[in-house]
Amino acid sequence: MTPRRKRAAWIIGALIALSLVTFFIVNAFRQNLVFFYSPTQIIAGEAPKNSAFRVGGMVAENSLARAADGVTMQFIITDTAQNIPVQYRGILPDLFKEGKGVVAQGRWENGTFIASEVLAKHDENYMPPEAQEAVNQAHQAAAKNLAASQASQHNKEQQ
Amino acid sequence: MKPHADGPRWLNIFHFASPYQFYPLAGRLIPLFATLAVLLAMAGLWLGFAIAPADAQQGEGYRIIFLHVPTSWMAMLIYVAMAFWSVMHLILRTRLSAMMAQALAPTGALMAFLSLFTGALWGKPMWGTWWVWDARLTSMLLLFFLYLGFIALTRSIDEPDRADKAGSVLAIVGVFNVPVIYFSVKWWNTLHQGASISMEKGSTMASTMLIAMLLMSLAAWMYAITTTLSRVRNLILQREARTRWVQELLAIPANKA
């Protein structure tokens, strides 16, 4: 082997070894490095007890309410399978909306998540407001059609 | 290096591996890339800030994407280029390859810093926080530190040959962080949103926004090439200062004056 080929072989060997190391490290982190837990994981008891953690999901529609004291906000974080009731004293970020993504940090106490920090998680879609409006209308129309077809199917079955 | 006699000289990739040949070529290319950088940036900024519509969710604040995404892409890409030149240097022992890696590093560090900085400015109004330790943000911070480490390492060793070798090894080891950054939003639950542009899904952006972002990305490419070439020229002059051609080159202005 020429010296140049020898060096190339060493470097290719090193690259393969390093990529294996990276693969194993990332694989280990994938299981242990969790930024937030989903409501399903929390109900299943996978979230840490007696210490702070984050819950992520969507703010359930029509769930946002102000508690009687006038400062505490109450809402439900859902992943459509499970719901987590959340209480938070503080100012919610601008992008916080019902039906949108949210990540809250806090503790799980007696069936309620007491949040100390609430962050909005926006998605990767960027579109002008008019386009968003069109998408929403299309969704509503599709939902109506679906409901209508299900209703007619239901009627047919009854007949 | 073996002499390469056959074929026209401009077809020979090793021809420009010599600092003596590359110095004037870089000098001729700089004005071209600099002009392209300015024109593309002007077009991108105009399209992004004057023409593109506001975003349905984020309003006007999303426009920081026109700086944030191009700088983030460049930061990752420049590191890959650095690793490429480092592999070339270690295998072929070409001095110019190591100089390329070292010339790329400061631009890469600047891009990584701008990415983190604009991201923080964006995060505060949108997410409600400047910084979180999620996988995307943390791995990007690691990239910034890798750049700083590379610069510090290569500058702290006085002997150029040893500095080149040490820097090359660090650049190659660090390159495995780049795919981790890219896929972090897929592999982990992150506060950072997923990719708006991907191989499988195409783009999830309105087309004017997308074009503006791509123009700004091209401008960032051109800017990076311009600064890298001019830095390489300086490195060549410093390292080859004792050779006859550099001394002759530096003597010309003195004669004219």
Structural description of this entry:
Chain A is α+β, with helices and mostly antiparallel strands and 159 residues long. Chain A contains 3 helices and 6 strands. In chain A, strands 1-3-4-6-5 form a 5-stranded mixed β-barrel. With 257 residues, chain B is mostly helical. Chain B contains 8 helices and 2 strands.
| CATH fold-level assignment of the largest domain in chain A | OB fold (Dihydrolipoamide Acetyltransferase, E2P)
Instruction: Please indicate the percent range of residues of chain A in DSSP E strands (runs of 2 or more).
Output: 25-35%
Gyration radius of chain B, in Å = 21 Å
Neighbour order of strands in the largest sheet of chain A? 1-3-4-6-5
Q: Mean pLDDT of chain B, nearest integer? A: 89
Mean pLDDT of chain A: 84
The gross shape of chain B turns out to be globular
Unreliable parts of chain A:
none
CATH superfamily of the largest domain in chain A: Nucleic acid-binding proteins
**Number of β-strand runs of chain A:** 6
**What's the number of domains of chain A?**
2
Top-tier CATH class of the largest domain in chain A: Mainly Beta
Helix tally of chain A equals 3
Largest interface: A-B, 43 and 40 residues
Q: Structural class per helix/strand content of chain A?
A: alpha+beta
Summarize the structure in short.
Chain A has 159 residues and is of the alpha+beta class. Chain A has helices spanning 3-32, 39-43, 129-158; strands at residues 53-59, 65-66, 72-78, 83-89, 101-109, 112-121.
